[in-house]
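pls ignore typos typing on phone
flavin mononucleotide + seq
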Amino acid sequence: MKVLVAVGSKYGSSREVARTICDALESQGFDVDLSDAADVRSVTPYNAVILGSAVYGGLWRRDASALAKEHREALKARDVWTFSVGMENVVVAGQPKDEAYGIAESIGAREHRRFAGALDPEKLNIGERALIRALDPPLGDFRDFADVRMWAQNVGAELREAAVS
Ligand SMILES: Cc1cc2nc3c(=O)[nH]c(=O)nc-3n(C[C@H](O)[C@H](O)[C@H](O)COP(=O)(O)O)c2cc1C
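k done
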């Protein structure tokens, strides 16, 4: 069974979450491709797609949301899971909390999952650093890779079930 794990990531922390999902599925025997969302031309070679993105300003990265929009019908015809990577305390008043819930619904995702991300001010541009300074959230790497692996294993188990039923 061929699975695509596609991700929108700016500074790499979500890409590592995607890689962990990919590795966990591979170790369950699935044939998995890992790709930046921007590089995906078609989802039709895949039986299942796991699409995720970092959240910035309440929005998915543009490449991930564009993939969901442009391939909506093909995604709806497949088993799809979605995930977001974000920080609960980086929320500006008035912005959407996480547009991914709507995206997940629009492509018929079986589940949408949020994972904690990482925030390293050293990596940010000036504007981003100013925003983070103003919001003053906890800084550091809050990713829980054991949790990510567990989720991926559950996805794998559901996929296997779907394949036999
Ligand atoms: C400028 C900026 C805005 C952010 N906005 C949000 C947000 O609205 N919601 C959220 O949950 N996380 C937000 N985050 C946290 C990022 O999603 C988190 O750092 C994530 O791990 C980044 O992923 P990446 O390294 O793959 O780009 C923001 C981070 C920055 C630097």
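Helices lie at 13-27, 62-70, 72-76, 100-106, 126-135, 145-164. The radius of gyration is 16 Å. more later
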